[in-house]
Amino acid sequence: MTTRRTLLAAGAATAVAATVLAAPAEAAAVSLDAASLVSADPIAHLVRRATFGPTPESLAEARKLGAVAWLDRQLDPTKIADPVCDELMARLPLAGASIATTRSKLAKNSYDGFKQLGRAAVARAAWSNRQLFEMTVMFFANHLHVAAPSSQTWDSRADYDAQVIRKYAFGRFADMLKASMKHPAMLTFLDNRSSTKAHPNENYARELMELHTVGLVYSEQDVQAGARLLTGLTVNKTTGAYLYDGSKHVTGAVEILGFKHANATAAVGESAALAFADHLAMHPATAQRLATKLCQRFVADVAPASLVTKLAKVYLDNKTAIKPVLKALFTSPEFAAAIGQKTRTPIEDLTATIRTLGLGPEKSGLQLLDALYNGLVYAGNAPFRWAPPNGYPDVAAAWASPSGFLLRCNNHLNLAAGWYPSWFTRPADMLKSLVPTLPGTYGALVDALATRLVGTKLPAQHTAAVLSVAGKLPTSPLTASDKSLAGHAPYLIALVLDAPSFQLR
């Protein structure tokens, strides 16, 4: 009989392995080679990293087109039809609404705009065909982070997502940075809306340099000068829109990190601030920092120094354009050599599970998206919910814990069995949809499940751990008349998803 105790016992063998994936030295001590746990196929490697989880369709498309052509197609998302996601977005009209529209639809300080925005991010990750675009959007939303919910951004946060992050994710970083500098959500989140000539607020100036651009290469004098330069960038109290108020601007010459401006009158204050943003965007330290963060996102937790140098040059040579940097990253030898060097965050684990199991959205309503989003709140990784301005951590160690792993295991079993959330559109027979032809042994069944769900067979000891939940050995015979198979199937599927091989991307 399958019980929760036997399930957890079977999972223990894989749980230990999953935890040490965050610590390569410890992994070596238990003879785990992360690169051997996932498929070495370069197409599969590309699709694992450039999407929220491979599907049979995305893998087939990439193999048909070839890596470069598939990548080029993903870098041109307007030419990719996205009907499922388009229909879901129609249910979430506030997710990209303008400030004026949000104000006309919602009461002051309503959380409904935040709710729709977060659910839209989950829906796009799980079901959009424009996967690399959505991955890049999430990266820059994390980089130029404005928490949602956050105080006084009820009317502007959705517009920030649409008009700053999504508008420029495949454009130029300099343009995205300037758009964020003039957006009420950013000016509110980092306090610049309250900055005045008499009392310049240093918060935004500091984070503009430390988090958004050059990193920790500035001085306190730079922060103070930056705060003075940014005065006047504020929010219209009546409309909630961006406003440059020259009466709040501190004039006088500034020199910050090599940027010089006479800033002689309040009339030039806004243009001076935007020129400063252009200077920061093109600063070599910004190029290095963005290249490092992109490597950490898509290549390895420890960014390869050689690739960082190459990407920083591509970034500067292309005047901060983002697409050339992404193409250089995904076609680099360093990327090709990085198999097994990234683990999934909670949202990536959830969406990859949905995608590999072939689960579709509910036909109407938002109950499913509510449940998925709330589950990510419990996991500590719901979109935009990170409170500090530095965005979610993007290294395995930040997400490696027994409690976090147990949440993933529970999700895998709930989704495989169809227990919760129950509003998915599901295959009529989950096991048959994953393994159409039943093999002759239980070991071969787990091999087939792993190949379909993960892309490669599990190591022998992991296969044995999975089968222990059913009280079977790899050599145990399997026939269509096996009365225990239906009961065991959800647990076998879930335990394959619990394995370290699935935790890697």
TrEMBL record:
The keyword Amino-acid biosynthesis does not apply. Pfam families: DUF1800 (PF08811). The keyword Ribonucleoprotein does not apply. Keywords: Signal. PROSITE patterns: TAT (PS51318). Transmembrane segments: none annotated. Residues 1-22 form the signal peptide. InterPro entries: DUF1800 (IPR014917), TAT_signal (IPR006311). This is DUF1800 domain-containing protein.
